[in-house]
Amino acid sequence: MNQTEIDTIVEVHRLAFGKEEGDDIARLARGFLDLPDTISISSERDGKIVGNVLFTPFKFVDHPDAKCYLLAPCGVLPAYQGHGVGKEIMEASIEHLSSVGADAVFVLGVPTFYPRYGFVSTYR
After folding, report:
1. How far apart are the C-alpha atoms of 96 and 39, rounded to whole Å?
2. Which of 69, 86, 89, 102 could make an SS bond with 97 (beta carbons 3.0 to 4.6 A apart)?
3. 23: domain range?
4. Distance CA 119, CA 106 (A)
5. Is residue 124 part of a domain?
6. What is the per-residue pLDDT across 3-47, written as a single tens digit (0 to 9) for each?
7. At 27, is the secondary structure helix, strand, or coil?
8. What CATH number does the domain containing 8 carry?
9. How far is 53 from 13, CA to CA, in rounded Å?
10. N-acetyltransferase domain: from which residue to which, for each copy (predicted)?
11. In the chain, which ranges are continuous DSSP H helix?
12. Residue 124 pLDDT more than 80?
């Protein structure tokens, strides 16, 4: 991934999360993109990235062989929200993570969005 693509993805997240959270989420995205094994999946319209989700691998001390990922952030440019872009990147992501043998994915995000893709809350 080149620097222009990284900058574009960071800007997608900044705009997707708006004035109050955008800068913080953009910094989070840039930090995750700086890690060599982060998986980035984007959706394009007319040759332009309009949505992106990042999956950053991590290890549990008690389960070092488990292939785990943190899903965060997932963002879609405001003009494309509600037009299936989030669904598109989530479905592509699930397929990709399955193909690489992911054992678990943990989500840091809005709890009402992810259950439609099979994610369940572990908070009790």
Report:
1. 9
2. 102
3. 3-117
4. 9
5. no
6. 999 999 999 999 999 999 999 999 999 999 999 999 999 999 999
7. helix
8. 3.40.630.30
9. 9
10. 1-124
11. 3-16, 18-33, 85-99
12. no
Distances (CA, A) of 15 to 10, 12, 36, 42: 9, 5, 24, 15
Average pLDDT, the chain: 94
Kindly state whether residue 35 falls inside one of the protein's structural domains: yes
Percent with pLDDT over 90 in the chain: 85
* Prediction pTM value: 0.93
The helix-helix angle for 18-33 and 3-16 (nearest 10°) equals: 150
Task: Please list, in sequence order, all residues whose beta carbon lies within 8 angstroms of the beta carbon of residue 106, skipping any fewer than 6 positions away.
Answer: 68, 69, 70, 71
pLDDT exceeds cutoff 90 at 113: no
Q: Is 122 contained in some domain?
A: no
pLDDT at 122: 76
Taking residue 18's Cβ as centre, other Cβ atoms within 10 Å add up to 11
> d(Cα 42, Cα 89) in Å, to the nearest integer?
6
